[in-house]
Protein backbone atom coordinates (compact mmCIF):
# COMPACT_ATOMS: atom_id res chain seq x y z
CA UNK A 1 0.00 0.00 0.00
CA UNK A 2 1.51 3.31 -1.12
CA UNK A 3 0.12 6.41 0.52
CA UNK A 4 0.37 10.19 0.33
CA UNK A 5 -0.12 12.26 3.49
CA UNK A 6 -1.37 15.75 2.65
CA UNK A 7 -0.79 18.40 5.30
CA UNK A 8 2.10 16.24 6.43
CA UNK A 9 3.95 18.62 8.75
CA UNK A 10 0.83 19.82 10.57
CA UNK A 11 -0.06 18.49 14.01
CA UNK A 12 -2.20 15.62 12.70
CA UNK A 13 -0.16 14.94 9.59
CA UNK A 14 2.74 14.03 11.88
CA UNK A 15 0.45 11.85 14.01
CA UNK A 16 -0.55 9.88 10.90
CA UNK A 17 3.05 9.52 9.72
CA UNK A 18 4.09 8.19 13.13
CA UNK A 19 1.14 5.80 13.15
CA UNK A 20 1.87 4.46 9.65
CA UNK A 21 5.42 3.67 10.74
CA UNK A 22 3.90 0.96 12.98
CA UNK A 23 1.84 -0.65 10.19
CA UNK A 24 3.33 -3.38 8.02
CA UNK A 25 3.15 -3.29 4.22
CA UNK A 26 2.31 0.42 4.05
CA UNK A 27 4.79 2.92 2.60
CA UNK A 28 4.53 6.70 2.56
CA UNK A 29 5.65 7.54 -0.97
CA UNK A 30 4.58 11.19 -1.07
CA UNK A 31 3.84 14.09 1.25
CA UNK A 32 2.19 17.42 0.52
CA UNK A 33 2.58 20.77 2.23
CA UNK A 34 1.81 24.30 1.02
CA UNK A 35 5.41 25.57 1.25
CA UNK A 36 7.78 23.94 -1.27
CA UNK A 37 11.05 24.39 0.64
CA UNK A 38 9.53 23.33 3.95
CA UNK A 39 7.84 20.18 2.62
CA UNK A 40 10.95 19.13 0.69
CA UNK A 41 13.11 19.48 3.80
CA UNK A 42 10.49 17.60 5.84
CA UNK A 43 10.40 14.75 3.32
CA UNK A 44 14.20 14.51 3.24
CA UNK A 45 14.31 14.36 7.04
CA UNK A 46 11.74 11.54 7.06
CA UNK A 47 13.22 9.64 4.11
CA UNK A 48 10.08 10.06 1.99
CA UNK A 49 10.84 9.93 -1.76
CA UNK A 50 8.47 12.65 -3.00
CA UNK A 51 7.29 16.01 -1.72
CA UNK A 52 4.81 18.28 -3.45
CA UNK A 53 3.43 21.75 -2.78
CA UNK A 54 0.08 20.92 -4.40
CA UNK A 55 -2.28 17.98 -4.01
CA UNK A 56 -2.66 17.77 -7.79
CA UNK A 57 1.05 16.99 -8.16
CA UNK A 58 0.78 14.13 -5.67
CA UNK A 59 -2.42 12.72 -7.18
CA UNK A 60 -0.78 12.50 -10.60
CA UNK A 61 1.77 9.98 -9.32
CA UNK A 62 1.52 6.28 -10.12
CA UNK A 63 3.10 5.36 -6.76
CA UNK A 64 0.17 6.73 -4.72
CA UNK A 65 -2.73 4.34 -4.06
CA UNK A 66 -4.39 6.23 -1.22
CA UNK A 67 -4.36 9.65 0.40
CA UNK A 68 -4.75 10.82 3.99
CA UNK A 69 -6.00 14.41 4.13
CA UNK A 70 -4.74 16.20 7.24
CA UNK A 71 -5.35 19.59 5.64
CA UNK A 72 -7.45 22.59 6.74
CA UNK A 73 -11.13 21.78 7.26
CA UNK A 74 -12.35 24.13 4.53
CA UNK A 75 -10.39 22.14 1.92
CA UNK A 76 -11.61 18.68 2.91
CA UNK A 77 -14.60 18.23 0.61
CA UNK A 78 -12.97 19.54 -2.58
CA UNK A 79 -9.78 17.58 -1.90
CA UNK A 80 -11.63 14.34 -1.08
CA UNK A 81 -13.56 14.59 -4.34
CA UNK A 82 -10.33 15.33 -6.23
CA UNK A 83 -8.68 12.25 -4.72
CA UNK A 84 -11.53 10.00 -5.81
CA UNK A 85 -11.66 11.59 -9.26
CA UNK A 86 -7.97 10.64 -9.54
CA UNK A 87 -8.79 7.03 -8.58
CA UNK A 88 -7.27 7.26 -5.10
CA UNK A 89 -8.83 5.94 -1.88
CA UNK A 90 -9.10 8.68 0.73
CA UNK A 91 -9.17 9.10 4.50
CA UNK A 92 -10.35 12.60 5.40
CA UNK A 93 -9.41 13.93 8.82
CA UNK A 94 -12.38 15.06 10.90
CA UNK A 95 -14.59 16.67 9.74
CA UNK A 96 -15.09 15.41 6.18
CA UNK A 97 -16.66 18.82 5.43
CA UNK A 98 -17.96 21.89 7.22
CA UNK A 99 -21.43 21.81 5.70
CA UNK A 100 -24.09 19.21 4.97
CA UNK A 101 -24.09 20.00 1.25
CA UNK A 102 -20.35 19.34 0.95
CA UNK A 103 -20.66 16.17 3.02
CA UNK A 104 -23.36 14.91 0.68
CA UNK A 105 -21.10 15.71 -2.27
CA UNK A 106 -18.29 13.58 -0.81
CA UNK A 107 -20.68 10.67 -0.17
CA UNK A 108 -22.09 10.92 -3.70
CA UNK A 109 -18.60 10.78 -5.20
CA UNK A 110 -17.75 7.69 -3.13
CA UNK A 111 -20.88 5.95 -4.38
CA UNK A 112 -20.03 6.94 -7.95
CA UNK A 113 -16.44 5.67 -7.81
CA UNK A 114 -16.76 2.74 -5.39
CA UNK A 115 -13.47 3.72 -3.77
CA UNK A 116 -12.85 3.57 -0.02
CA UNK A 117 -13.64 6.96 1.50
CA UNK A 118 -13.43 7.23 5.25
CA UNK A 119 -13.88 10.07 7.75
CA UNK A 120 -11.45 10.50 10.62
CA UNK A 121 -13.92 9.74 13.42
CA UNK A 122 -11.17 8.57 15.75
CA UNK A 123 -13.45 8.26 18.79
CA UNK A 124 -14.96 5.12 17.22
CA UNK A 125 -11.48 3.58 17.45
CA UNK A 126 -10.08 4.78 20.79
CA UNK A 127 -9.81 1.65 22.99
CA UNK A 128 -11.78 3.36 25.76
CA UNK A 129 -14.81 3.85 23.50
CA UNK A 130 -14.29 0.48 21.81
CA UNK A 131 -14.58 -1.20 25.24
CA UNK A 132 -17.94 0.52 25.79
CA UNK A 133 -19.09 -0.36 22.26
CA UNK A 134 -18.22 -4.02 22.74
CA UNK A 135 -20.24 -4.13 25.97
CA UNK A 136 -23.21 -2.53 24.23
CA UNK A 137 -23.05 -5.01 21.34
CA UNK A 138 -22.90 -7.89 23.84
CA UNK A 139 -26.06 -6.61 25.53
CA UNK A 140 -24.24 -5.83 28.79
CA UNK A 141 -24.70 -2.05 28.71
CA UNK A 142 -27.28 0.44 27.52
CA UNK A 143 -26.54 4.14 27.43
CA UNK A 144 -28.95 6.36 29.32
CA UNK A 145 -26.92 9.55 29.07
CA UNK A 146 -23.61 10.76 27.72
CA UNK A 147 -22.21 13.88 29.38
CA UNK A 148 -19.32 15.32 27.36
CA UNK A 149 -16.99 18.28 27.82
CA UNK A 150 -14.73 19.57 25.04
CA UNK A 151 -12.45 22.28 26.36
CA UNK A 152 -9.57 24.34 24.92
CA UNK A 153 -7.98 27.70 25.59
CA UNK A 154 -7.72 29.09 22.08
CA UNK A 155 -8.36 32.82 21.97
CA UNK A 156 -5.85 33.20 19.16
CA UNK A 157 -5.72 31.25 15.90
CA UNK A 158 -3.31 28.43 16.82
CA UNK A 159 -3.21 24.69 16.18
CA UNK A 160 -2.75 21.71 18.50
CA UNK A 161 0.99 22.43 18.63
CA UNK A 162 0.39 26.05 19.61
CA UNK A 163 1.54 27.28 16.21
CA UNK A 164 -0.24 29.98 14.14
CA UNK A 165 -2.99 28.63 11.89
CA UNK A 166 -3.79 29.78 8.35
CA UNK A 167 -7.46 28.81 8.79
CA UNK A 168 -10.11 29.09 11.51
CA UNK A 169 -11.22 26.11 13.59
CA UNK A 170 -14.88 25.59 14.54
CA UNK A 171 -16.50 24.21 17.70
CA UNK A 172 -19.55 22.80 15.89
CA UNK A 173 -18.30 21.32 12.61
CA UNK A 174 -15.01 20.04 14.00
CA UNK A 175 -15.06 19.45 17.75
CA UNK A 176 -18.77 18.70 18.22
CA UNK A 177 -18.58 16.37 15.21
CA UNK A 178 -16.58 13.88 17.32
CA UNK A 179 -19.32 13.55 19.94
CA UNK A 180 -22.33 13.78 17.63
CA UNK A 181 -21.00 10.85 15.59
CA UNK A 182 -19.90 8.88 18.65
CA UNK A 183 -23.30 9.25 20.37
CA UNK A 184 -25.10 7.88 17.32
CA UNK A 185 -22.49 5.12 16.85
CA UNK A 186 -22.68 3.98 20.47
CA UNK A 187 -26.48 4.04 20.70
CA UNK A 188 -26.96 2.58 17.21
CA UNK A 189 -29.59 5.24 16.54
CA UNK A 190 -29.94 8.47 14.63
CA UNK A 191 -30.65 11.54 16.74
CA UNK A 192 -34.34 12.48 16.58
CA UNK A 193 -34.23 15.68 18.66
CA UNK A 194 -31.39 18.20 19.01
CA UNK A 195 -30.70 21.81 19.89
CA UNK A 196 -27.73 24.11 20.17
CA UNK A 197 -26.86 27.32 22.00
CA UNK A 198 -23.83 29.42 21.25
CA UNK A 199 -22.15 32.24 23.10
CA UNK A 200 -20.82 35.54 21.74
CA UNK A 201 -18.76 35.58 18.54
CA UNK A 202 -15.05 36.31 18.79
CA UNK A 203 -14.44 39.83 17.40
CA UNK A 204 -11.51 38.73 15.21
CA UNK A 205 -12.00 35.01 14.56
CA UNK A 206 -15.75 35.41 13.89
CA UNK A 207 -16.60 32.10 15.58
CA UNK A 208 -18.54 31.28 18.74
CA UNK A 209 -16.12 30.53 21.58
CA UNK A 210 -18.64 28.68 23.77
CA UNK A 211 -21.39 26.24 22.85
CA UNK A 212 -23.94 23.89 24.43
CA UNK A 213 -25.61 21.03 22.54
CA UNK A 214 -28.37 18.61 23.52
CA UNK A 215 -29.43 15.46 21.66
CA UNK A 216 -31.93 12.64 22.11
CA UNK A 217 -32.45 9.33 20.30
CA UNK A 218 -35.85 7.71 19.58
CA UNK A 219 -35.30 5.21 22.42
CA UNK A 220 -34.72 8.03 24.92
CA UNK A 221 -30.94 8.15 25.37
CA UNK A 222 -29.71 11.73 25.76
CA UNK A 223 -26.39 13.50 25.30
CA UNK A 224 -25.31 16.83 26.74
CA UNK A 225 -22.22 18.43 25.22
CA UNK A 226 -20.39 21.53 26.45
CA UNK A 227 -17.67 23.08 24.28
CA UNK A 228 -15.37 26.05 24.88
CA UNK A 229 -12.32 27.78 23.46
CA UNK A 230 -12.21 29.90 26.65
CA UNK A 231 -11.38 27.21 29.23
CA UNK A 232 -8.18 27.50 31.25
CA UNK A 233 -6.81 24.18 32.48
CA UNK A 234 -6.46 20.70 31.01
CA UNK A 235 -7.67 20.66 27.41
CA UNK A 236 -9.34 17.90 25.43
CA UNK A 237 -12.61 15.99 25.53
CA UNK A 238 -13.89 14.06 28.54
CA UNK A 239 -16.78 11.60 28.30
CA UNK A 240 -19.07 10.32 31.04
CA UNK A 241 -21.21 7.34 30.05
CA UNK A 242 -24.15 6.90 32.41
CA UNK A 243 -25.52 3.43 31.68
CA UNK A 244 -28.09 1.03 33.04
CA UNK A 245 -25.24 -1.06 34.39
CA UNK A 246 -22.49 1.28 35.58
CA UNK A 247 -20.96 4.67 34.90
CA UNK A 248 -17.74 5.07 32.92
CA UNK A 249 -15.38 7.97 32.24
CA UNK A 250 -13.33 8.01 29.04
CA UNK A 251 -10.31 10.28 28.80
CA UNK A 252 -8.73 9.77 25.39
CA UNK A 253 -7.38 6.20 25.41
CA UNK A 254 -7.97 5.60 29.14
CA UNK A 255 -11.18 4.43 30.81
CA UNK A 256 -12.34 4.59 34.44
CA UNK A 257 -15.44 3.49 36.30
CA UNK A 258 -17.72 5.91 38.12
CA UNK A 259 -15.44 5.78 41.18
CA UNK A 260 -12.38 6.70 39.07
CA UNK A 261 -10.90 3.19 39.18
CA UNK A 262 -9.00 2.37 35.96
CA UNK A 263 -10.38 -0.31 33.65
CA UNK A 264 -7.97 -2.70 31.94
CA UNK A 265 -8.12 -2.10 28.19
CA UNK A 266 -5.46 -4.61 27.21
CA UNK A 267 -6.69 -6.88 24.47
CA UNK A 268 -9.30 -4.42 23.21
CA UNK A 269 -7.19 -3.50 20.16
CA UNK A 270 -3.73 -4.09 18.70
CA UNK A 271 -2.68 -0.58 19.74
CA UNK A 272 -3.73 2.03 22.29
CA UNK A 273 -3.20 4.77 19.68
CA UNK A 274 -6.50 5.81 18.12
CA UNK A 275 -4.83 7.37 15.06
CA UNK A 276 -2.97 4.15 14.34
CA UNK A 277 -6.19 2.15 14.73
CA UNK A 278 -8.11 4.35 12.30
CA UNK A 279 -5.27 4.13 9.78
CA UNK A 280 -5.20 0.34 10.14
CA UNK A 281 -8.93 0.20 9.41
CA UNK A 282 -8.48 2.38 6.32
CA UNK A 283 -5.73 0.23 4.82
CA UNK A 284 -7.46 -3.03 5.76
CA UNK A 285 -10.71 -1.93 4.09
CA UNK A 286 -8.80 -1.11 0.89
CA UNK A 287 -7.00 -4.47 0.85
CA UNK A 288 -10.19 -6.42 1.65
CA UNK A 289 -12.43 -4.45 -0.72
CA UNK A 290 -15.01 -3.60 1.96
CA UNK A 291 -16.69 -0.60 3.55
CA UNK A 292 -14.70 0.65 6.53
CA UNK A 293 -16.03 1.53 9.94
CA UNK A 294 -16.52 5.34 9.76
CA UNK A 295 -17.05 5.38 6.00
CA UNK A 296 -18.27 8.75 4.77
CA UNK A 297 -21.73 7.21 4.24
CA UNK A 298 -21.86 5.98 7.85
CA UNK A 299 -20.84 9.42 9.15
CA UNK A 300 -23.35 11.36 7.03
CA UNK A 301 -26.12 11.15 9.71
CA UNK A 302 -23.81 13.00 12.11
CA UNK A 303 -23.36 15.76 9.53
CA UNK A 304 -27.14 15.94 9.15
CA UNK A 305 -27.46 16.39 12.91
CA UNK A 306 -24.79 19.11 12.91
CA UNK A 307 -26.72 20.91 10.17
CA UNK A 308 -29.90 20.73 12.26
CA UNK A 309 -28.05 22.15 15.26
CA UNK A 310 -26.51 24.94 13.19
CA UNK A 311 -29.93 25.91 11.89
CA UNK A 312 -31.21 26.04 15.49
CA UNK A 313 -28.65 28.80 16.20
CA UNK A 314 -30.39 31.00 13.67
From TrEMBL:
Domain Gfo/Idh/MocA-like oxidoreductase N-terminal: 1-120
Matches recorded under InterPro entries: Gfo/Idh/MocA-like_OxRdtase_N, Gfo/Idh/MocA_oxidrdct_glycsds, LigC_C, NAD(P)-bd_dom_sf
Molecular function via GO: nucleotide binding; oxidoreductase activity
Pfam families per UniProt: GFO_IDH_MocA, OxRdtase_C
Oxidoreductase as UniProt keyword: yes
Domain of life: Bacteria
Residue stretches making up the 4-carboxy-2-hydroxymuconate-6-semialdehyde dehydrogenase-like C-terminal domain: 127-269
Sorted UniProt keywords: Oxidoreductase
Protein name according to UniProt: Gfo/Idh/MocA family oxidoreductase
Species of the source: Roseibium aggregatum
Organism placement in taxonomy: Bacteria, Pseudomonadati, Pseudomonadota, Alphaproteobacteria, Hyphomicrobiales
Amino acid sequence: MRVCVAGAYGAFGIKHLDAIANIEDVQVTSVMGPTKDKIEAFAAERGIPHAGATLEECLARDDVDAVILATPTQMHADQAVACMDAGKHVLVEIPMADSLADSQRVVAKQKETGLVAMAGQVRRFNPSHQWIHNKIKAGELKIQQMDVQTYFFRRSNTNAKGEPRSWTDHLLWHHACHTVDLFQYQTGETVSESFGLQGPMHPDLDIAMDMAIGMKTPSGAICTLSLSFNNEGPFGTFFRYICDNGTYLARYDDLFDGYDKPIDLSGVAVSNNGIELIDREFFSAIKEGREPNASVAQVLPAMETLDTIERSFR
